[in-house]
Amino acid sequence: MNMILKATLAAILATTALSGAAHAETLRLSHNTGDTTTWQKGADKFAELLKEKTDGAYDVRVFPNAQLSGGDQMKQAEMVGRGALDLVVTSAINVTPLVPEMAVFSLPYLYKDYAQVDATTQGEPAKLLEDILREKGIEVLAWGENGFREVTNNVRPIKSPDDMKGLNMRVAGPMYIDVMNALGANPQQMQWGETMTALQQGVVDGQENPIGAVIIPQQVFEVQKYLTTWHYSYDPIFLGVSTKVWDGLDAATQDDMRAAATEAMAYQREITRKGTEDGVAFLRDKGMEVYEPSKEELAAFRTATQPAFDTWADKVGTDIVGSFQDAIAATPAN
User: Fold this and answer.
1) Rg for the chain (alpha carbons), in Å?
2) CB neighbourhood size of 23 (10 A)
3) How open is the CA angle 317-117-50, to the nearest 5 degrees?
């Protein structure tokens, strides 16, 4: 009798375990870049933490290179907003076709350092953008980092605005088209998945991206000769979930998901900044010629890109731009 009872209990437990595993919900997360980047590492960390915090109730599958949107990195946020995708890790500039106000983070020469960045992305100003994204069907869970965007090319060292004239430059979004036009370059908006081939074949002369998040892990140094650390624009990333998914979660699961995202994006910012800190020496070792502009040279770039700043500040709106500028002004100088 005891043996029968034990066998019955074992069967019940096994069935329960299998049932629990079968009921794990799979969520699909899409991001822009390759599977070697800090974007991928942050997404993987989120998947690991969410599974842990929910006792295996959620399984996140990560899809790099905007696979789920046909390679269109601009389309991902819109798909999340209407519930066609569950989760996204994308950069602010890639969401500007849906939410023009997101360009505020990337206004040319808005920031000088990470302290000023953190005062906005991790502070009250970012909440203004979160409110707008929520209206578009996206709940922002946490902010990560793409980083300060540096310029690379195969034609010549970039030391002044005049050096940009005539260069065919791959850009990621509409604001950067105006910036490149202000510098006299020829901007070509292109998906990241097409960019490395375009650089190899000489379709474009150069591109601009952060060192730690993109240039090193995507091995841009293999197809580009010159890099200038002009820090002209900053680009955050965010981890967002469709409100159709979010609104279907109970409060405890929402707390778990936000906590997992916050921890994952903190990790992603840390490894991105570390990669950037060590990156210049690494790129020089790989054969790139790296030019680090003086304060006077940076001031010349700032002056040259002011028209693009003014144009996009108007599109973003004075309330939002003012909120960012106030937070930056209140940040203690390093």
Assistant:
1) 22
2) 9
3) 105
